[in-house]
Amino acid sequence: MKSLAELLSGWCEVPDLQVKGLALDSRQIQPGYAFIAVQGNTGHGLDFLAQAEKAGACAIILDQHDDSAFQSDLPLVRLPKLKNRVGKLASRFYEHPSVQMPLVGITGTNGKTSCSLFLAHCWNQLGSQGGVIGTLGTGAVDSDQDAAEQLQETGNTTPDPVTVQAALAGMYQQGVRHAAIEVSSHAMDQHRVEGCRFETGLFTNLTQDHLDYHSSMEQYGEAKAKLFLEMPLQHAVVNLDDAFGIRLLQQLKQQRPEITRIGYSVYPQPQGLDLCDRFVVTEQSVLDQNGCQAKLNTSWGQFDFANQQLLASFNLSNLLGVIGCLLLDFAPEKVLQAASNLKPVPGRLNRFGGSELPLVVVDYAHTPDALQQVLSALRPLVSGKSYCVFGCGGDRDRNKRPQMAAAAEQNSDQLVITQDNSRFEDPAQIFADIKTGLQQPDLAWLEPERNQAIAKALSVAKAGDLIVVAGKGHEDYLDIQGKKSFWSDLQAVSELLQAKAGEQYV
Ligand SMILES: CC(=O)N[C@H]1[C@@H](OP(=O)(O)OP(=O)(O)OC[C@H]2O[C@@H](n3ccc(=O)[nH]c3=O)[C@H](O)[C@@H]2O)O[C@H](CO)[C@@H](O)[C@@H]1O[C@H](C)C(=O)N[C@@H](C)C(=O)N[C@H](CCC(=O)O)C(=O)O
Ligand SMILES: Nc1ncnc2c1ncn2[C@@H]1O[C@H](COP(=O)(O)OP(=O)(O)OP(=O)(O)O)[C@@H](O)[C@H]1O
Predict the structure, then answer these.
(1) Are 242 and 178 in a shared domain?
(2) Residue 271 assigned as binding residue
């Protein structure tokens, strides 16, 4: 129980009232909770007042200037600047969990989930229980279990501000002592991480995505930059191989000189090194089927580094970002040892087959850049033909469909176009949009059923060939016409490969 007057002190005067909890969503209200009713993108919390009251809400908190018409006998609290303050209010309610444990906020178009789990697994090895909030869910990370199974899903990469604070507090109670949170551009725009005090911000990269929400790349970038330019933060770890990263460092140097700037790069002499207080760069690297090996030059010394399980240059980049965050707090030898033991994140470059079977890789790539990176990184690993099975989501950024198609066509020998989450769109329209990006649309195979598409690629691929199944990664559903039915690329690939292996021995 908390006193509402204390929770809101300094913001507005309210009659004293004890609340058991806070919720932004009527479906999460329990008896004795205060219902925070905000204007959303499609509706208003007040539209769900009846449900909140029925569920036992004891007060309603709304914006001071809200003029919505509604009726309620519950105590009303009109809070100025409500949307900006929900996170801070929740932080007060949960006794400021991000002040009690160091928090790393990760933003960037690609690599957030990978880096957050890499950090958590490293913290575990370094003797401090790690936790995450992100696309795979929230919770303490047990390095002996599959992250996708142990975390609590929220439906968002960054959940709403009350859930963020509740999750941080829950983790702290569970024994988590270092946490990483994926911060999407939507989250920055909607104040979902307000109330968080970040020790470190990690920026991975900026490429096209989410232009259905942000009106331009400029706005998309600005939303991400807010994590560094507006939030409480001590250190910024920034990818120097990304043009936006360099711009961010320039802005940080001018606008927030008190923040330590750490740059990282997969190259020896990257641009922007002069903007950094500290750095982690690669002098030399070898990337092959056996993972990555690199000579690192850092402000903490020079080190030989190897990881035999993570493929591709972008994973080396992710590792450098993670190493940069960890070197701020832990001894270099221990950090490098922990990073060398890291394994792939569920649904990100997960390998199957190989040897007498084709190599099949399941990956979550669902942006033009991620698809291009994944395919171009994997293709040199095989001597044979490469196949790419992919689709595009419905009711989302339509412009990325032809771009994903072009990336797939340029980086594989044979495309198999199939369905992804078509949502409420006609899949035929999505396939047509995909084909507009192809130089040779007639050569691409179209197999609307995902299982058939993977089976088709497997039926022709031989040992030495590569099949990349892109787009779903760890997800366990297909969203079609508002109905989510069970689907797992990981399971399908495993079963189909087993069947193929069986056939080969008949
Ligand atoms: C467009 C958008 O971003 N919507 C997000 C936003 O919802 P909203 O505030 O606009 O909600 P709304 O539907 O207008 O409803 C208004 C209010 O009524 C409340 N409500 C609604 C229904 C109900 O039964 N009872 C109830 O009380 C809602 O809790 C809300 O407070 O705030 C919610 C809480 O934070 C989010 O869950 C929700 O994400 C929706 C589900 C979504 O799909 N968002 C995507 C675009 C998104 O945020 N993606 C990013 C990045 C993903 C990536 O990395 O690729 C993410 O961080 O997940
Ligand atoms: N640094 C990177 N640069 C480009 N692609 C990457 C990078 N890291 C991972 N990827 C690829 O991008 C896709 C998404 O990876 P990941 O889930 O780690 O990123 P994310 O930022 O969390 O994305 P999302 O929020 O959409 O889940 C995967 O295909 C992954 O293999």
Answers:
(1) yes
(2) no
